[in-house]
Specification:
Chain lengths: ~290, ~220
């Protein structure tokens, strides 16, 4: 790849007058040795899986093996349809879709890790809901995935994208940053605005710990995907409106790394702290252990 | 760079619930299976760190066994891998490991078939990506994102030049190479990640080299 930082990515865009997704597709083809079309087709298949997962989560039983979670997406979607959502229809739908994909994941269904399974609902939630609202074709959204991927590539290589290494900020936080930046490009914003959206979004999840109850990707992971979709839309709107990330986005990524490294192990996916060790969290762990034996 | 391309970030397509604990674990299992070269009869899996804490909840056990049965990350049979293995008469033991393990999501896999045995240690480093750090006691480093040659050979001068010379003649480009040995003038293990698919001709030519004892391969990426 010809870029390591968001600043380098931005200067590639500005020198050539092209979008982040264009730069990513070209670099990806160079890295794999395949044609840009081949790489595009592969991403298109992934987008199809994302759309299937949204549909599945909205229509099928998503009760997880543990029985702890499931069907929340359908509850939220029904509430949206009644015109009751405080968020309004747009953000409410993104939230429902994100919950849907995340519940499919928890019930051992097929999803695309973006960047991880724990955070797999955010990008589909934002993308699939925006597609129907704005009437975009699939190709536009597939380009958006390359844009999101470019941002994620920088975050992953300068910080991390796994909860075990950097806490939930690394998973859900990264996905929100990726979705926000991609949404800016999809809406016709500049690469610079897209990069600002990443910094704005990441700042809002710094320090978020990974504390899954019973070690399962369920509580609080699923609802954090729902919240994440809404936050991504908010960050995209701020950036499109001209709000800047005063601390440059690359520096925010460095902060995420610093915060993640100093996070105690109990708050990095081990289920030894946070929500996992509340009285209810512990009771759930006990019950699951008994069920296993 | 730990993450090489856009599909290390968007992807893999996988069965939930966790890219580190399910998809990464399946890929670790599959790498070990391919190194053994056949279906094992006995499997001993030791989990460390976060793997050890949460392997049941994340279905890491199902995923790693699925991988050992050669199932890919998005194979819906991962859900039934434990029953599948039982039907095939494969004996599986899980252990929890202690001590220095490096990465928080680490597993050690021992596979046996007859008198063939393979020990592999690796970590799931996030987003379904893996890093293998030990094979049969040798220090190695490969990711499964490329076609990988694992060559056991005699430790003597010029060996590496002969191997890379052969690869050059075959037009094979090397992405990463690591070599380790247990002592001087014994056996060494060379692991080479290459950009090209591995052909049977390449394996045969490597095997015919006089001081090459064994050639194994790992190929985890779908080739379209």
């Amino acid at each position: 790849m010809k870029f390591r930082t968001l600043e380098e990515l931005l200067s590639l865009c500005e020198q050539s007058g092209r979008s982040i997704s264009d730069i990513m597709i070209e670099n990806q083809a160079a890295e794999s040795g395949n044609t840009p079309d081949t790489e595009f087709m592969r991403m298109a298949e992934y987008y199809a899986v994302m759309k299937e997962a949204v549909q599945k989560g909205l229509t099928q039983d998503t009760t997880s093996r543990s029985g702890l979670t499931g069907l929340d997406a359908q509850r939220v979607q029904k509430f949206n349809e009644q015109g009751e959502a405080c968020l309004g229809d747009i953000a409410g739908t993104a939230m429902a879709y994100a919950l849907a994909v995340s519940e499919v994941n928890a019930s051992m269904g097929r999803i695309i890790a973006t960047p991880t399974a724990g955070s797999c609902g955010i990008i589909p939630g934002v993308f699939v809901s925006a597609q129907s609202r704005f009437g975009w074709d699939d190709e536009h959204l597939v380009r958006g995935l390359f844009c999101a991927g470019a941002i994620g590539y920088v975050i992953a290589n300068n910080s991390f994208v796994s909860g075990a290494e950097g806490g939930c900020q690394a998973e859900v936080g990264s996905a929100i940053g990726m979705a926000a930046g991609a949404m800016v490009e999809l809406r016709g914003g500049t690469p610079k605005q897209a990069i600002h959206a990443v910094g704005l979004a990441l700042k809002n999840t710094l320090g978020l710990i990974c504390d899954p109850v019973g070690g399962l990707v369920e509580v609080p992971c699923i609802v954090r995907n729902g919240f994440g979709a809404v936050t991504a839309l908010a960050a995209a709107d701020m950036a499109l409106a001209g709000v800047r990330s005063v601390i440059p986005s690359d520096e925010v990524i460095q902060v995420m790394y610093e915060v993640g490294v100093s996070m105690p192990e109990k708050h990095r996916e081990t289920a030894q702290g946070g929500l996992a060790q509340t009285p209810t969290g512990k009771r759930i762990i006990d019950e699951l252990r008994r069920k296993d034996q | 760079m730990r993450f090489k391309d856009v599909f290390a970030i968007i992807g893999p397509a996988m069965v939930g619930p966790s890219s580190s604990h399910t998809a990464g674990a399946a890929r670790l299992g599959r790498a070990a299976r391919q190194l053994l070269g056949c279906q094992p009869e006995q499997v001993v899996i030791t989990f460390y760190g976060s793997f050890a804490e949460t392997y049941k909840g994340h279905c890491t056990d199902l995923a790693i066994v699925g991988g050992i049965l050669d199932y890919d990350t998005d194979d819906s049979r991962l859900v039934t891998s434990m029953e599948d293995a039982e039907k095939m008469g494969i004996q599986i033991t899980f252990k929890v490991g202690f001590g220095n393990y490096g990465h928080p999501n680490t597993a050690n896999i021992v596979l046996k078939h007859g008198d063939k045995e393979l020990t592999m240690k690796g970590a799931s480093i996030g987003g379904g990506n893996i890093e293998v750090s030990k094979v049969d006691g040798y220090d190695v480093r490969f990711t499964g994102n490329y076609s990988t040659l694992v060559i056991t050979h005699i430790d003597r001068p010029g060996m590496l030049a002969e191997i890379t010379g052969l690869l050059q003649r075959e037009g094979v480009n090397i992405g990463h190479l690591s070599l380790d040995r247990k002592g001087r003038s014994g056996e060494a293990l060379t692991v080479i990640e290459i950009d090209n698919p591995i052909t049977s001709k390449l394996i045969q030519e490597l095997q015919e080299m006089q001081q090459v004892k064994e050639v194994r391969t790992v190929e985890l990426m779908k080739r379209g």
